[in-house]
Amino acid sequence: MDSLLPSWQRAWAGIGAAGEGDELFAQLKGAYAEPQRHYHTLQHLGECLAAFDNVHAQAEHAHEVELALWFHDAIYDIRGHDNEQRSAEWARDALRSAGAPADAAGRVHDLVMATRHTAVPSGRDEQLLVDIDLAILGAERARFDEYEQQIRREYAYVPGFLFRRKRRQILEGFLDRPAIYSTPYFHEALEARARDNLRRVTAR
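The chain above was modelled as a monomer; its predicted structure follows.
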């Protein structure tokens, strides 16, 4: 069995969508396997879903959070600036077409938009989702270094000096926050290691 299928089936049925969502499931898996991706792949999706398994009981709308994870990087145009918006709209429209309640589809849309990381998340579900998406920052050193290499490959077209400058600005933005993680679970588990990882990379 596909290791991601139980997550999909649980969330799809839980949100009240009709059928099995098999076609959409295949489309999403295909999207995460696109050749321009090196980090925003099925590996990242699988890591996010595994992290969610540890905290799903903390969510107010667990099925919406799980589906938002499925869609949060569904559209990934390396040169695009509206990936999250397009992903959020795809999620909302697909769920509404499958008969999911409008309020639930709207929550999934809003959760996906939170992964723009332009503001500190608010609300329990938004905080959980964003913390899961940022869990890679607190990964073990080998996985974090692999992640940094994967991001660089995604932006291979950007000159090295410019990539390093922009990347440092992004990572320092997380370091400058009073807390990288908003939920007690992820703060306790990952905050210290995430800060160590970020300081090490930005000091290069």
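The two ends are 43 Å apart (CA to CA).
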